[in-house]
Amino acid sequence: MYRPTIKSNLWLGLMTLAFIVLYYWSDVSRINVQAPYYKEKIEAARTMAEAIEALKNFRLPQFEHADRENGLNDPLLFTMLNEKDSPITTDEGRIEDKITVLNPNFAAVVVDLLVKSGVKEGQSIAVTLTGSMPGANLALYSAAKALKIRMVPITSVGSSWWGANSPDFTWLDMEQVLLEEGIFDSRSIAASIGGSDDHGGLRLSVQGRNLIADAIDRNEVTFIHEGSLSDNIQARMELYERHASISSYKAFINIGGGIAAIGHRQNASLIPTGVNFKLPAKNYPGLGCVHYFAEAGVPIIQIGYVTRIAREYDLPINQYPLPRIGNGIVYEHEIYNLTVAVFALILMFIILVVVKYLDYRKFKWREEKIDHDSII
Q: Three-state SS for 168?
């Protein structure tokens, strides 16, 4: 009976060397392939960059006469980060997060999230925003434009540190500038003060509330200021309902930690960042718009912990100057070259067959008492 031997160190060494070379060839022969919706992602990033530039140009006169003690000696940062603290600041915040979402490539990430949620061209999404992360807001507006999605946004005007917290240049003012410049064709349908109870909380002074009310008034949007947080949430749901039935929205997207959106501060850590087709069963201390949409079967997109999203998509964190458009796995990713891999596998198989054949012949010679070394 034939039993394979292959005991020659020479053959084993040659086989090992050949297999290592073929494996290395397969490993290094990788190719980059474009991610789905590449064109729309590039378009969204370019639109976001255009929007940032338009806002910067609008604020240049204020920048030239501004007190630079806050360290924002760059007109773009001055425009998009505004101030650390101001009369309309409702909470603390991290400047690193605010710079991270200024990256125009973040708009491509939002395109990816919207596509994963199943939203298609011409469909409607409900949106809640705050003034805390204007960069993320711009990313959403740019993504919606690229995908030709209809948005119904409602804003909480108050902002955390380093957001759109300049009383004369709130998120609503930014929207208006971009509307007049023709970059976007939609803006918030309504706005509230924001803060811990959506009415300013303990941190906001009477002056701060009045400044926000003035911003809402000059931008001519509906002012949501009911008697309580639950009433404000209900008012939001009624406004969404006026534009379309709740279940007909194809996604609900929340940017930031607006209390009317998530229902309670603790819910920020209970609602997973990213796309949620169903919210996890938790003991939520309060219910917000996100829960009512989830109950109606609407996919939820939560953009809260932005550094977590940035790491997932391999985007730089807190990088300035901003990266160039088109960089990152959101646009393209690396895969093995299947042609090379299959060819290398076939060569490995052929080597094994040849070695086995020679080994078998050697066995036959021994069986027939033939000195194979004497055969020419």
A: coil
**What CA–CA distance (Å, rounded) separates 259 from 287?**
9
pLDDT tens-digit map of 298-329: 999 999 999 999 999 999 999 999 999 998 89
Distance, CA of 103 to chain centre: 11
Q: Using alpha carbons, select from 209, 232, 202, 95 the residue that is nearest to residue 157.
A: 209
**Contact call for residues 114 and 239 (beta carbons, < 8 A):** no
Pairing mode of beta strands 30-34, 159-160: unpaired
- 75 SS3 class: helix
Report the candidate in 88, 83, 80, 43 with the shortest Cα–Cα distance to residue 58. 80
CA distances to 128, 137, 240, 245, 316 from 210, rounded to whole Å, are 22, 24, 26, 33, 38
Cα separation of 6 and 33, whole Å?
42
Residue 294 in tokens? 């989830």
Q: CA nearest 251: which of 134, 140, 132, 101?
A: 140
CA–CA gap between residue 186 and residue 176 (Å, rounded): 9
Tokens 């006469």 sit on residue: 65
pLDDT digits (tens, 9 = 90+) for 179-224: 999 999 999 999 999 999 999 988 999 999 999 999 999 999 999 9
Dihedrals phi, psi of 173, to nearest 5 degrees: -65, -40
Cα angle 230, 198, 252 (rounded to 5 degrees) comes to 75
Query: 47 with 108: CB under 8 angstroms?
Result: no
Type of residue numbered 59 = R
3-state secondary structure 285-336: CCCCHHHHHHHCCCCEEEECCHHHHHHHCCCCCCCCCCCCCCCCCCCEEEEE
Q: Where are the alpha helices (DSSP H) in 122-170?
A: 134-147
